[in-house]
Amino acid sequence: MDNEKVKNWLETHDGEDCCRYCIHDSSGCPHGMACYGGAPIEPLCASQDIEDFMDLEWLLEDIENGVWDE
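^ that's the sequence the OP posted. Answer follows.
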């Protein structure tokens, strides 16, 4: 994997851009802190290393295919 390309992307993108590649995205993740009247609920990614929740191979594929050309 081209770690430099992924590292550069991660330094310039956040929030919803990262959510696209998160393995928890389709599991009802609130995409940020949520509160429904009780204690705040953190998204699963808040307590994990980025390698544990992001599909970095898919991200690299999109980078190389020009999906993130600016």
